[in-house]
Amino acid sequence: MQNSAISTSMPVRLVPASVGASTVYVPCPGWCTVDHIVDGVNYVDDILHSGRPAVWNVASFEDGGMRDRPVQLSVELGADLASKDPRFQAAHVTVSDGSVYAYLTPEMADTAADELVAFAARIREAARTARLSGVKAARNQADEALYRVRGGQS
Ligand SMILES: [Zn+2]
After folding, report:
1. For the whole prediction, is pTM greater than 0.85?
2. What would the pLDDT profile of 1-27 be if each residue is shown by its tens digit?
3. How far is the CA of 73 from the centre of ligand 1 (A)?
4. Is residue 11 in a domain?
5. 3-class SS at 106?
6. 42 C-alpha to center of ligand 1: Å?
7. What sign results for the dihedral spanned by CA atoms 85, 87, 93, 95?
8. Residue 137 covered by a domain
9. Parent domain of 120
10. What is the CA(54)–ligand 1 centre distance, in A?
């Protein structure tokens, strides 16, 4: 197992890990929140390190069940110190919608964050346009009857 992919400025500690029927001590990045005793593995090379995920749930005004939060994105730190791919060995950022995973270098994550800020501005722009567009929901029959009784005033 190699831990040279982790920056020396990031504290790496030795933590207990359940591997097969044994407990061994393995290097673990300071940001890792995995309990390697609880999340035991069969082989030391199967140990994955991850940080606490941040999750963005997007609400929907549609009723019922899973539709309340139909869009979800998560982001977390990760490192697979036993990976043969140095990009996975190094601390990296994983963005996921729960079914698809995007793995980013820190530089790629900075770019993605900048793009997300620009995307947030587009969300605000769409909200403003919707608010000011004058497009309202059609009145139902009860609202229409009340509208007529009031002489055309809502
Ligand atoms: Zn760890």
Report:
1. no
2. 344 444 445 689 999 999 999 999 999
3. 23
4. no
5. helix
6. 15
7. negative
8. yes
9. 105-154
10. 17
